[in-house]
Write a structure and sequence with these properties.
Strand order of the largest sheet of chain A: 1-2
Radius of gyration of chain A: 23 Å
Largest sheet of chain A: 2 strands, antiparallel
Distance between the termini of chain A: 68 Å
Helix content of chain B: 40-55%
Largest interface: A-B, 69 and 79 residues
Low-confidence stretches of chain B: 452-469, 510-637
Strand order of the largest sheet of chain B: 2-1-4-3
Structural class of chain B: mainly alpha
Strand content of chain A: 5-15%
Oligomer: heterodimer
Number of helices of chain A: 11
Amino acid sequence: MGALMVVFSLQTKQRRKRTDSVEDELELSAVRHRPEALELLEAQTRFSRKELQILYRGFKNECPSGVVNEDTFKEIYAQFFPQGDASTYAHFLFDAFDTDHNGSVSFEDFVMGLSILLRGTVQEKLNWAFNLYDINKDGYITKEEMLDIIKSIYDMMGRCTYPTLKEETPRQHVEIFFQKMDKNRDGVVTIDEFIDCCQNDENIMRSMQLFENVI
Amino acid sequence: MAAGVAAWLPFARAAAIGWMPVANLPMPVAPTNKNKRQDELIILNVSGRRFQTWRNTLDRYPDTLLGSSEKEFFFNEETREYFFDRDPDSFRSILNFYRTGKLHYPRYECISAYDEELAFFGIIPEIISDCCYEEYKDRKRENTERLMDDLEDNKDNKPPNMTFRETMWRAFENPHTSTMALVFYYVTGFFIAISVITNVVETVPCGTTPNQRDIPCGERYTEAFFCMDTACVMIFTVEYLMRLFAAPSRYRFMRSVMSIIDVVAILPYYIGLVMTNNEDVSGAFVTLRVFRVFRIFKFSRHSQGLRILGYTLKSCASELGFLLFSLTMAIIIFATVMFYAEKGSSSSKFTSIPASFWYTIVTMTTLGYGDMVPKTIAGKIFGSICSLSGVLVIALPVPVIVSNFSRIYHQNQRADKRRAQKVQKARLARMRISKAGSSTAFLHSKRNGLNQSLELTGSLEEDQQLKKTTSLLESQHHHLLHCLEKTTNHEFVDERLYEQGYLQTALQNFPSQSPSLSSEEGVTGTCCSRRTKKNIQALNATHTHSHTHNLQELSALHIHCGEQQPLNTSRSSLNLMSDESGSLNCKSSGLVTTAIISIPTPPSNNSRANPDAPPPPNPDAPPRPNPGSDVVKISAL
């Protein structure tokens, strides 16, 4: 019995050493990020000074350290869709917002993205949407990428829908999308095809203006 | 929705632009922020201490005093501030709730004062965040217990009109209420003591007769002891019968521990009376007399401390169990080791492993009788390890038991572990409820929104009017969810309706829901105007009828966006409905969604709800000729 206890205490000591090193790592990486000056941001985005103030207050409230990492992003986004699983779509969104691909979204990234989405021209918005769909950022939307995106949107609906979601519903949705967008039937959608087709579609054009007055 | 993420709602709505190119259906109109004033600071003067915050911060929770228009009652015109004559210290935590979305309970605060403040400001205590919720609940429970104790003390004033039986029971339970009860209490106590002493003295040898051996007193003065025993048993029997008579619930009384002890205490005497002086059974009879010692437990009625001890042991059952288990493990291990270690030595007392158990127990509890000692070196080594570990193993759970005893003795926390499980369950339940709350809020507002539009003639302005009932934040959130529904061409339903819809689809042929409509087809007007056509589905009605309690339900409404269909198609579809009750009405041109709506009372312009019989399709509201405006027509089953 005594021997057992001695062995046990040795083990805990080792474990403590390991956690100490992890803690050290954490200390170094807990970065506090301060955004660029208000005037700079005002110049770079299409928001007024007051709007930027409001946006920053909300941003800082939820993320006191000044940057959003992917998990926090997913958590925040999931709060708006209680019935489904918003994590996959949030992941794609995170990639779209994180323009410099450093794994975290700072306030500048956030506000630039919002500026395009809310105050940009139709061209810019469509560009942004294309960027969102093009997961590997190679300039082409393939069917697999689109399928992933559509599946993630359907995931947000959750289980309890009417009519019940079937396996082939996302796939059918992708087919319709490609039929509409892929003009030369080469299996991928390029940015020009995409923008052309969207500009000819009244519905899409109208829905792009939907969130004009969000801020 | 938490206050923090309310600030992110604009972001979530902007991100919805990502759905637009993939959606095949037009999106619903966004709620507009009519009174879009600049965010202003408002001043809250609480008993002289001024707090300032943004108006938007307070608007996050529109169903509290500060978030609603109720605060206008406290507006002071001269100083242009809101004055509240309340405690400024408590107000801190309340204002922080608006700022952070989390309500904290400060430890220094009195529980009833805090409750009053919460009630004044319209905040329900259940939303206290997890970090402070345990503390809050504990203090609240203490408070209610204290109040109940006060009540009980007051109850000692004898209420009038008590029956004789109730008086007796009260006398038994609270001896200090009347002198008669006190006398009874002391008499029974005295006789318990006499009985126990008699049992003890019975076995003392007190022989001075010229015999070889001393005989115990019991055998010497048989009649005397028998008389004593009889007297005590008489008293106990009478007492038991009186308690049984006075008990409010005889069945429950008979099951209680004290009454079982009473019965066990007097039963041996009666059994002894009944049994003859047969040689065979007298052995068993002697064993029965052992049970007379249980009379000593009757003292626990007289002693609060004994009862608490018993309760402590019961509540520390798991610690005691652990002690027992670890001891057993150790005993077996060491006994085995000692047996094999001592196997070699000659004339070893360790004849078998069970024989070694005795040695191990005696050594671990540091008794050390010395009747069994190891002789080999290995045996001695292991023997010493055994005694050292015995001290540790026994010393570990004992402080836990002690602390439990002291805690219970100070009237803290009954049934600790049971409550801990309940708290955990309650916490999970609260999280589930809050999650379900936001989704049900959306479904609810969908029904309400559609319901209200049933009554209106449905022009754009009135559409906006009904938005006032929900807060702007909520309506924006619901609009977002609505856009998602349109994108995927599926609708949110709540859990139970989903279950029954699942059953339905098993029954019906479900036509393919592929949104094969291109968006150009069904759109003539703007998608801003709400176009709703409603059809009914007979099948749903029969299913949902079983679920309604006092709601009258309108079952599935199809919301069409296709404007080309004039109203007579809906009527024809109604005819379809009544003919083929089993098929789901699905038109290629514009069937979008179905919703199951329940309304509390049928509005006057709707037809009466009669879920059982298929209705004569009778659209009550007059159909509108121009397709551009909203159509509100409904037939109810």
